[in-house]
Write a structure and sequence with these properties.
114 residues; alpha+beta; 14% helix
Length: 114
Amino acid sequence: MLIRTIAATLVLLAAVGCGDGGVGPEGDVVGGSCTADGACAGGSRCLVESDFPDGTCTVDCTSQDDCPGGSICVQENGGTCLLACEAADDCRDGYACVEKSRLGAPDGALVCMS
């Protein structure tokens, strides 16, 4: 019984450690492609502008606390959670990993945009 409990706990921790399933290049909360707000989940909206080829799901933010894990609150559009990155390979095709000003913070952060 104890072994099963430990095993179940380890599986749960591994799943949680993988991050938010809705955030990433294919995410339906932040980072995934979209054509309209209904294509995004969890109260996200679809941002369709020249800097976001094929649209991108995003969440409005006033601070980093508003953004799900794996995304950064930047000053775009008055406060937008965008997919965090370290290199262009972390982003969808057509996107680059660029530095943008974080909302409410003195430093910048790397996010996926074109």
